[in-house]
Amino acid sequence: MKSPLVFIENTPIRSNEYGIYHLNDMHKAAVDACMAKKWQVPSQFLNTDGVVQYIEEVTKVLKNTLEQNQILKTIHGGNSRGTWAHELIALRYAAWLSPAFEFKVYQTFHEVVIRRMSVMAQLHRLDRVINREEKTISDCARKMRHWGRGGRKTE
């Protein structure tokens, strides 16, 4: 599973293109920053009151746009082992760890969204430039087609 990185409290948090995050990385970041306890592992979070219902609701609402395994997945071996969860569940986990860590995660996610919006705005500008250039090239090609071989056609 190739994962882009998000950093929270200088700790890399693996994620993927579907918006699922490695909760074990989040736990490590929170513990290292003294914003959570060691016992607050993802498996404990998943067993707390209300979390199962919350996950069921997220699954129900997002089932049309996501595959089931993109909501919550636990991998027991390999480089990607641990608990992976959709962004909405990751935010809920951050809140469960501590209010201070929840705030850090919200800040980080907000910065990521702003950065993505900036990149998208740049892509839209480039797209407009390319479309203008294509139109200019097309107009030039249309004129040249009428010139004929060796210069301008005589009318």
Task: Describe the protein's architecture and organization.
The chain is α+β, with helices and mostly antiparallel strands and 155 residues long. It has one domain (5-116): Mlu1-box Binding Protein, DNA-binding Domain (Roll). It is built from five helices and five strands; from the N terminus they run E-E-E-H-H-H-E-E-H-H. Strand 1 and strand 2 (11-14) form a beta hairpin. Helix 1 packs parallel to helix 4 and helix 4 runs antiparallel to helix 5 (99-147). The longest helix is centred in the last third of the chain and has 49 residues, at 99-147. The mean pLDDT is 83.
Largest sheet: 3 strands, antiparallel
How many domains?
1
The strand order across the widest sheet is 3-5-4
CATH topology: Mlu1-box Binding Protein, DNA-binding Domain
The count of helical stretches stands at 5
Briefly note the structural class of the backbone. alpha+beta
Average of the residue pLDDT scores: 83
Instruction: Tell me the series of helices and strands, N- to C-terminal.
Output: EEEHHHEEHH
What fraction of residues sit in β-strands? 5-15%
> Level of helix content?
55-70%
* Termini separation: 65 Å
- Indicate the low-confidence ranges by residue numbers: none
| Cα gyration radius (Å) | 25 Å
What's the β-strand tally? 5
Give the CATH level 1 class: Alpha Beta
Q: What is the approximate shape?
A: elongated
